[in-house]
Amino acid sequence: KNLIRNTYVYMMVTGYSLALVFLVFYCRYMAHSYNFFLFPATFGQMDSEFSFQAFSIKFLTHYGFDFNKFLKDGIPYMNEAQEKKLQKGLLSGNWVVHSVIDKDKVKKVIDEVTCWMSFAEEGESMVLHDIYGFQMFEIQLVLRQALQDIWTVPLGSQEPLVGHNMLMDLLHLHDKFYNPLPEDYEEFKKNIHTLFPILIDTKNVAKAIWKEFQFPQASNLLEVYEVLCSDMNPTNATCPEVFHASDCLRYATKKSPHEAAYDAFLCGSVLLKTAHLLLCRISCDPARTSSSFSQYLDVLAAYVNQVNLIRARVQKINFSGMDDCTNRPPLLIAKVRGWPSVTTQQIYQELRIHCRFDVQQLGKNQFLLFSNKFKDVKFVLKVCKTHPNLQISLYRHWRHSAQVNCFLQMCGIVVSWSLLAFLLGGSSNFAL
How far from chain centre, in Å, is Cα 63? Predict the structure, then answer.
């Protein structure tokens, strides 16, 4: 837990997406999908440090991520702890607008917003133009002080928050926009449940029903969506249809996997289609067409606030109660012989012939193997008995941990020196 918490301190959010799905007619829903590029706020002594992974950069580049927009136009953000610290500085009079030009810009913007508020009706919005760089942040601070009701979003919304494999998203939401991640695991769960009382993880829902309906393996969100939209889904003909709004039509003609807004659309679609599938199963009527969203939420009640967890002692986190203690497949350790300079990727590809494992290097010529399936663990232990380069066995902490081995070696050295000193001391006494 502390490892995850400490890791997320140096991770950053490059963007967030939102897909708002509305029922427009019968079983037809419209999705408004949005991308928001984000960049952490810098102000005075407040600054953010973050790290990049080469793999992540290559991944984002491959899928067309706009780094210029992220760095230049990313929306500044801060969490509540940072905001309180900044407000304290503002109240003490330590904050000033940097230049005469900025002062004029702030005054002009406040005049524009004040004028707009006099005639604006509920639900309307306005766009501020010709604001760049640090001006954007300073103007936000002034407007937040003067117009708190406009900028404050109420917590604890009863609308469901839907994600796919969404634990990482929740960690970022808490750390970057609410408060730094707490040390206590239960406090983290309580905070998230207060912020988002209704969570639905489509990964958790899909995983539960996939085997029952004998769908082919799907390794990502797009593949899950495509299976549910095909004839392999017995309720495909009667499933609710989700189409793109007029300002998102490019997604209708071009698939954009791993682009945040498109993934949000896929997530909403998967939710509706899996809910429809479950509802038809309960009613024993595959041709059922008329279903309300409240009925879909009812049939998904068993999955609410259950978020999927990978490679851990529990399979999911229950944000509204106690976690279920379930057995997970044991760790394996692979020892390499006669395969110089082998990498984790090579080990992964070698085992992929039989089944899928996550691979992590433990030490020189030693690799940890992680799997979600007991049958894969049993299979690879059996198949690799005769492998010329890999010796695979169950991982035992006291036997294979580098820290434990180091500790035992140190103990051995101390005991050896103590025994030698005792023998030499005994010999001296005997000689006297």
Answer: 18
Instruction: Work out whether the CA dihedral 111, 113, 117, 121 comes out positive or negative.
Output: positive
Question: Cα–Cα distances in Å, from 137 out to 58, 93, 95, 115, 131?
Answer: 30, 18, 13, 21, 9
Q: What is the tens place of the pLDDT at every residue in 138-162?
A: 676 667 666 655 544 445 567 889 9
What are the CB-based long-range contacts (under 8 Å, 24+) for 120-128? none
Residues 63-72 pLDDT 10s = 888 999 888 8
- Token pair, residue 293, equals 């969203």
Tokens of 83: 């905001």
98, 215, 228, 257, 288 from 232: Cα distances, Å: 62, 7, 7, 21, 17
Work out whether strand 15-25 and strand 28-37 pair parallel, antiparallel, or are unpaired: antiparallel
CB neighbours of residue 137 within 10 Å = 16
Say if CB 319 and CB 190 are below 8 A apart.
no
Instruction: Report DSSP state, residue 314.
Output: S
Terminal CA-CA length for the chain? 59
- pTM, 2 dp: 0.71
Strands 161-163 and 199-201: what pairing?
parallel
Q: How far apart are CA 65 and CA 348, in angstroms?
A: 27
How far is Cα 277 from Cα 255, in angstroms, rounded to an integer?
24
How far is residue 127 CA from its own chain's centroid? 30
